[in-house]
Amino acid sequence: MTPGRSPAVGRTPSSRPGRAAGRPKRSSTWRWPVIAVAAGVMLVGCGGGGDSAAKSVDPATGKKADRVVEVRMLPERRYEPDNVAVKVGETITFKLKNDGDSFHDVTLGDEDVQAAREKEMAPMGPEPMGMDDEANSVTVAKGETKEFTRTFDKAGTLIYGCHQPGHYSGGMKGTVTVS
Ligand SMILES: [Cu+2]
After folding, report:
1. Which of 19, 70, 101, 102 could make a disulfide contact with 95, Cβ separation 3.0–4.6 Å?
2. Is position 23 within any domain?
3. Strand pairing partners for 160?
4. How far apart are the CA of 175 and the centre of ligand 1, in A?
5. Distance 114 CA to ligand 1 centre (A)
């Protein structure tokens, strides 16, 4: 989106938990048109810390969530649960609860999306850090909970992975099975 920028510029590591520093403007290969909308919704949600009503609608489809699925991030760098089964057409609000001892994040997408995110995070260094939320990536500080809502309109398997340093390669991932 901003050409010619070095990867490190504009990605403000937020040292304080819960603050989305800077503007979500990183490029993502995934669903470009909805990013602006999603970012707006997430920023609104971040301010109050409890405005889940604003986030229980999929910004891409306008559909209200059919149900809420809670996913916990554990200190041993795992998600609980690590598989979520949904029906085609269902809209799910994921409630992401960080019970770990550092930042964790969730990127939802296929293998390519995971690989791209891993590559994007690589230059950020070895320390866990907060990142601006995007349409398909949400970072959660320890002790905090965030939500995002997504409609699953195609059968198949998606992955949710954490791309804090070493987490994804260490197995911090889960699957959404859509059938
Ligand atoms: Cu993690």
Report:
1. 70
2. no
3. 108, 174
4. 15
5. 13
In a domain, residue 46? The reply is yes
Q: Do 51 and 44 form a contact (C-beta atoms < 8 A)?
A: yes
One pLDDT digit (tens) per residue for the chain, 179 residues: 444 444 444 444 544 444 444 444 444 444 444 444 444 444 444 433 444 455 599 999 999 999 999 999 999 999 999 999 999 999 999 999 999 999 999 999 999 999 999 999 999 889 998 888 988 899 999 999 999 999 999 999 999 999 999 999 999 999 999 99
Nearest to 163 by CA among 153, 171, 151: 171
Residue 116 CA to ligand 1 centre (angstroms): 16
**What's the gap in Å between 134 CA and the centre of ligand 1?**
17
Handedness of CA 34, 35, 40, 46 (dihedral sign): positive
Kindly state the tokens that stand for 21.
């520093």
In a domain, 17, yes or no: no
Name every residue whose Cβ is closer than 8 Å to that of residue 63 and which is 6 or more positions away in sequence. 57, 91, 151
Q: Does some domain include residue 14?
A: no
Structural domains counted in the chain = 1
Q: Which domain holds residue 155?
A: 32-178
The pTM is what?
Answer: 0.70
Residue 134 belongs to domain with CATH number: 2.60.40.420
